Amino acid sequence: MLLALLFTALALAGDVDAFLAWADDARPAAEVSARTEPGQPRAAFLPLEDAPTDEDVLDRVSPGYRFAGTFFPQIAAHVHDMPGRVRPERIGTSALGRPIWAFPLQNPDEPIRRKVLVVAGLHAMEWVGTEVAVDLLDDLADSPLPKGVQVTIVPLANPDGRAFVERDLRAGETRYRRGNSRGVDLNRDFAVNREAQAFWRHLIPGYYRTSPGPVSQPETRALDGLAHRERFHRAASLHSFGGFFYTPWSGRFGRPERQDRQELWELGRAMEQAWGTRAYRTRQLGRWGFFFRAHGSEIDHLYGRYGTRAFLIEITRSGIQPLRPKTWKWGFRSYNPERPRRMRKHVDRTVHSLRALITHPDLPSEIEAREANHGVPVPPIDGDEA
Ligand SMILES: [Zn+2]
Question: How far apart are CA 251 and CA 187, in angstroms?
Answer without folding.
Answer: 11
